[in-house]
Write a structure and sequence with these properties.
RbsD/FucU_mutarotase, RbsD-like fold, L-fucose mutarotase activity, RbsD-like_sf
Amino acid sequence: MLKNIDPLLNAEVLQALRAMGHGDRVVVCDTNFPADSVARETVLGKLLRIDNVPAPRAVAAILSVLPLDTFVDDAAMRMEIVGSPDELADVQREVQGEIDRAEGKSWPLGSIERMAFYEAAKQSYCVIQTGERRFYGCFIFRKGVIPPAAG
């Protein structure tokens, strides 16, 4: 156990998040996402897990250590609902709240069409599957930077 590190962040997840560089993307997905096959095509090449918790809780843990990229418009993206691209599922609203809390301000959550999401996920650094069972609990986050300490 480590101080000030969310206990959901297991060693494999922490190692991957630490290894990512500015601009690298992490996929956080639900239990229905083809996580293993997609993860095999990512930079890391294997699936990571944060089991037995819903996506918003996993996202809160991840964003407690991962800064979002402020240089791009697509630092936080959700999978669009098929046939209703502008609709937000409850899980997506909850994740939006976690993003806003982590960043300390309202942060835009963009969207990607379902099949395009799969392709973008394959180009990501890694995939982290959660225990989320609600549909459309799939997100992509782009890692930002931590500025130097003011001094």
